[in-house]
Design goal:
The chain is of the alpha/beta class. Helices cover 27% and strands 19% of the residues. It is elongated and about 105 Å long.
């Protein structure tokens, strides 16, 4: 099996797995090859077993995997349950031992040797590799053909507790209500792990482990009929089903203190279930097939997500139950497990997005929808191999032959959706007190500029914006979608700083289309209210702390030339910006560039954004170049220092200059005048500030939610001073003495 097989795989080959499947039969099985007069002859001369030869099984059939000897968990299963057991052997199985076990329990156990399996009238038999966990699926089909109503899929190192699962229908049941629109739920914390540590099931997306809204849910008493719970996953005490990362970094054993409880996740919320100890009722038998083109550590998790998605379009649900098994895990190599679980770490987001982007709407039957979904996962997503598509088609054919009735669609089916992207929570501080308070803690990313006068083509160009989920200006999502699509096209890196979005509200990036939120060059930095307070040194009000956020954006940027801009600004093309970088010599801390903005309606903004940045470098020139020496000593007006109006919509400089001036003012936090203060800092550092003739386009809006005194900085007053050597600098009332 996927876990017991890893015992051998850890010593031999991690990619090959041996499986034994146990499915209990009621009164013995059909007779062995060559000994049954009722066997039919196949086209190739091999005796075949007719479906009518498969005996009637009991209502419950247990299914397990092993490559080891008969153990206490299996013996306990046979003795404690009024269930059926068929053992599906593999080529590495000790056939004589299992046949002996069958003779001991001839009224309940049937052993299927490899030869016996080849006689079965199932198409899947020839589609499942030998020495593979997936041969377990043959046992599921056998149980279905035998009239089984419940399959108990378990691993042979999971020991059934004395109370078993027969009284499950009397346990307390609760509906899970998550506080946000998160698409994943971790049930383990609710069941009160004995170590009081955060714990998660194998296959849970790693980046959401620490996100509280994925496990801190409200539980409401459920009115869901027990018969509608088609999949009930038991937790496991002592050594629960967790991934190798947990096992390598946390101590075991762990048990769960909450007893006799069942929780039912909402439709649309993904939770992985596994093959350790799970009850599957007949309506969900279609989802028992195990993929064979992935490792055993991945196979049952992929199966769980696929089945879960399909069940949402029926009246049936998935549930998680308090532990009714104790696992004494067979020997494993954690590092082999880690390698075999690679897809669970690196592809689970792709799997969930593929499922969320799929719909059964065009299908009249669930069987047709099932094949369509597997086809998508094979052909479009490369999450399964083509052999799994062939296997799925054979599985559907076999289910039809054994008389399986697929569940009907419910009236309302799940629509496609874009899933929330993982937030990156910034927990670092901006700096210390005094003059160092404005120093950037940015890492020194290796520059790609060669020599002192490299070209713009060798520059890594990045931009950052600050935003929050507050619909500032109205239709913030629409305006930002236009702007960010252009930025993704133009910049090598786009840092999106989500600043102080209220608790329980999704990060702003999660509201945007998948082509933006999932873009390769997008970097999301979510600063929660708690983190905002830590950075600020005081509780944060429900507002945008823009200058604080801009310093975080600067710090997180790994680009050589960094642009500070806004979430509703459509920037020039990359060709234009490369030419500006070249003409302004933005290769060190000596120059900076600002661009004038033009306000345009959203319809026009959409047209410009869709132009794909086709404007080139021809005609680009510097309209004006300003140095601090150009200013007269004495007071300087705000617009004189700002050089142009709305100078903060596009400010571009090499990262060395941003670091030299210490970024934006730290002692002011609103969204105005910070841009003018930055220009004063640039000029005072002896940099030349250029105004190019290119424009940025700002999508107009009328509502200014935050244009109120509580969010505005006091207007700075500027004074130009000159030292004894004739050097000038611009002093600001914002500057820390």
């Amino acid at each position: 099996g996927k876990r017991s097989g890893r015992r051998g795989a850890a010593l031999a080959c991690a990619a090959m797995m041996a499986a034994v499947v146990l499915v209990v039969a009621s009164v013995g099985g059909w007779r062995r090859a060559g000994s049954s007069a009722s066997s039919a002859s196949s086209a190739n001369g091999v005796n075949r077993i007719r479906l009518s030869d498969i005996p009637r099984l009991k209502r419950t059939c247990a299914v397990s995997t092993t490559i080891l000897e008969v153990n206490a968990a299996v013996e306990r299963m046979v003795e404690a349950l009024d269930a059926s057991l068929v053992v599906v052997g593999d080529r590495k199985t000790n056939h004589s031992e299992w046949m002996g076990f069958q003779r001991l329990h001839s009224n309940s156990v049937t052993y299927l040797s490899p030869d016996d399996q080849m006689e079965l009238p199932f198409e899947v038999v020839k589609r499942i590799p030998w020495n593979h966990f997936g041969r377990k699926s043959i046992g599921f089909l056998y149980a279905t053909a035998g009239g089984c109503e419940i399959v108990y899929d378990f691993d042979d190192d999971n020991h059934l507790k004395p109370e078993g699962f027969e009284a499950l229908s009397s346990w307390e049941r609760f509906d899970v209500r998550l506080s946000t629109n998160t698409h994943v739920f971790n049930p383990y914390p609710y069941f009160q792990p004995s170590n009081n540590e955060l714990i998660w099931p194998r296959g849970f997306p790693l980046q959401f482990i620490r996100q509280k809204d994925t496990y801190d849910a409200t539980m409401e008493p459920s009115s869901e009929p027990f018969k509608n719970l088609a999949v009930i996953q038991s937790l496991a005490d002592h050594d629960p089903d967790v991934d190798a990362i947990y096992r390598l970094t946390h101590s075991l054993p762990v048990s769960f203190n909450r007893k006799k409880t069942i929780v039912i996740p909402e439709r649309g919320v993904y939770t992985p279930w596994n093959a350790q100890a799970v009850l599957v009722s007949r309506p969900a038998f279609f989802g028992l097939l195990l993929p064979v083109t992935v490792t055993g550590r991945v196979s049952d998790i992929w199966r769980s997500y696929i089945t879960e998605r399909l069940l949402w379009d029926t009246d049936y649900k998935l549930a998680f139950a308090s532990s009714f098994v104790t696992q004494y895990r067979n020997p494993h190599s954690y590092m082999v497990d880690f390698v075999d679980e690679d897809d669970l770490y690196n592809k689970v987001d792709d799997m969930l997005q593929a499922l969320a982007g799929w719909s059964s709407a065009k299908h009249a039957s669930l069987s047709s929808a099932y094949i369509d979904l597997v086809t998508k996962l094979v052909d479009e997503c490369n999450l399964l191999g083509r052999d799994d598509l062939h296997l799925a088609k054979a599985w559907v054919t076999d289910l039809e032959r054994v008389g399986y009735v697929w569940p009907s669609f419910r009236q309302t089916r799940m629509e496609t959706r874009t899933l929330q992207k993982v937030p990156i929570v910034d927990e670092r501080h901006l700096g210390t007190d005094g003059d160092a308070s404005n120093a950037l803690n940015a890492s020194s990313a290796p520059t790609v500029v060669e020599g002192g006068g490299g070209t713009a083509a060798r520059i890594k160009l990045g931009g950052f914006i600050v935003t929050r989920n507050d619909n500032y200006g109205g239709d913030l999502v629409g305006r930002s979608t236009l702007a960010l699509r252009r930025m993704i096209e133009v910049f090598d890196e786009v840092v999106v700083v989500d600043m102080n979005t209220p608790v329980g509200t999704p990060p702003f990036l999660a509201l945007l289309p998948a082509d933006i939120s999932g873009a390769r060059n997008i970097k999301s930095v979510v600063v929660s209210p708690e983190m905002c307070a830590r950075e600020l040194g005081a509780a944060c009000e429900d507002k945008m702390y823009e200058l604080l956020a801009r310093n975080i954006g600067l710090r997180e940027s790994a680009a050589d030339v960094v642009v500070s801009t806004n979430s509703e600004v459509i920037v020039p093309s990359r060709l234009t910006l490369d030419e500006i970088i070249k003409q302004a010599s933005l290769f060190d801390d000596k120059n900076a560039v600002i661009l004038e903005r033009v306000n345009i309606p959203q319809v026009k903004a959409q047209s410009i954004a869709l132009s794909k940045g086709t404007e080139g470098k021809e005609g680009v020139k510097m309209l004006r170049s300003v140095r601090v020496q150009d200013f007269r000593v004495g007071p300087a007006g705000l617009m004189e220092v700002s050089i142009i109006g709305d100078c903060g919509d596009f400010q571009m400089a090499h990262r060395d200059l941003w670091q030299k001036i210490g970024g934006f003012a730290k002692n002011q936090h609103g969204h105005n005048f910070g841009d003018s203060d930055v220009i004063a800092r640039w000029l005072s550092s002896s940099a030349t500030v250029h105004v190019a003739n290119a424009k940025v386009y700002h999508t107009s809006h009328t509502s200014h939610k935050h244009d109120k005194p509580a969010t505005w900085n006091p207007e700075p007053r500027f004074t130009v001073v000159q030292d004894a050597g004739g050097s000038k600098r611009i002093m600001s009332t914002w500057m820390v003495a």
